[in-house]
Amino acid sequence: MYRTWEELYSECKACQKCELCKTRTNVVVGVGNPNADIMFIGEGPGENEDLQGEPFVGRAGKLLDKMLAAVDLDRNENIYIANIVKCRPPQNRDPKPEEQEMCIGWLRSQVKLINPKIIVCLGRIAAAKLIKPDIKITKEHGMWFKKGNFEMMAMLHPAAVLRDPRKKPEAFDDFLKLRDRLEELNKGEV
Ligand code: SF4
């Protein structure tokens, strides 16, 4: 476990624990406020993220930023965003279970340093890894799960919402639930 962000970033950026290190441009460690109440976690970097070294920066990232802004959240101010794997899987394939297992230690260290109140999993792969393996994202997104000290929710991946814009209202509804839950937690109502 890492005591400081500096240690974590410098070691993570040099990581060669799995084969994804061979094809990456950048290690995409994470972005945001290290004191955030909410962490968002996706599955892994895509092409734009790999090139820029930041999570969720392509079209899906823009949509995520819009939905965040609608509930007064901002990636640089009051949340932290990371992924299960920090290096891009080639051709944007799903990260393999063994790659996820190799990489998850970095995420655990990030969660430990941030100690958020809420963890949001973006998409099925992150939700299956962190909430429960058999999660049905289409039915169970927007539901709350309690794991240890954390309130957890799965959301539809913004890329899935871009592919099927009819999903936008239900996706946005989850952001409203998130805002309400954070307010409750901050007021000590739970
Ligand atoms: S994906 Fe994770 S475990 Fe694999 S090389 Fe990148 S940082 Fe290391």
Task: Write up what this structure looks like.
The protein has a single domain (5-184), classed as Uracil-DNA glycosylase-like domain (Uracil-DNA Glycosylase, subunit E). 43% of the residues lie in helices and 14% in strands. By secondary structure, the protein is of the alpha/beta class. It contains 8 helices and 6 strands, in the order H-E-E-H-H-E-H-E-H-H-E-E-H-H. The protein is globular, with a radius of gyration of 16 Å. It has helices at residues 5-13, 47-52, 59-70, 97-114, 124-130, 137-140, 158-163, 168-187, and strands at residues 31-32, 38-42, 79-83, 118-122, 144-147, 150-155. Strand 5 and strand 6 form a beta hairpin. The longest helix is centred in the last third of the chain and has 20 residues, at 168-187. A 6-stranded mixed sheet has the order 1-3-2-4-6-5, with helices on both faces. The chain binds iron/sulfur cluster. Iron/sulfur cluster (SF4) binds at residues 12, 15-18, 20-21, 27, 85-87, 99, 102-103.
